[in-house]
Design goal:
Helix content is 35%, strand content 40%. It is of the alpha+beta class and 113 residues long. A hairpin with a 6-residue loop joins strand 2 and strand 3. Helix 2 packs antiparallel against helix 3.
């Protein structure tokens, strides 16, 4: 049985969030949550919250599941839309574009057989 949770339009660049996601890919849920809790990265707190949400979805769909057998089967980050901002520049350039990037994070949990 699998369950998934998705966080859309997360206000951080996909490149920064992938550093956090790569730490926990393929791990069991409990060690993954521990490593996310100890990580100094900004996105670690929100990725941990997403993993807990996927675990709650799995427990809702399959009551009495053994949490020790649950692991992160898939976790990935896709790029989302970008907010385009501008900063005044020299006369000929007029404006430097600043991209405020967003991303979508998806977590899928599975139970080891």
């Amino acid at each position: 049985m699998e369950s998934r949770a998705q966080l859309k339009y997360y206000r951080s660049s996909p490149r920064k969030v992938r550093l956090v996601v790569d730490m926990v890919r393929g791990q069991a849920v409990e060690p993954a949550l521990t490593s996310l809790q100890l990580s100094p990265k900004y996105a670690a707190k929100d990725v941990a919250k997403l993993v807990r949400s996927a675990l709650a979805n799995l427990e809702q769909a399959q009551p009495g599941v053994d949490v020790d057998r649950v692991f992160i089967s898939k976790i990935y980050v896709d790029g989302g839309p970008s907010l385009r901002r501008g900063r005044p520049a020299s006369k000929w350039v007029r404006m430097h574009r600043i991209l405020k990037r967003m991303c979508h994070i998806t977590v899928e949990l599975a139970v080891k057989e």
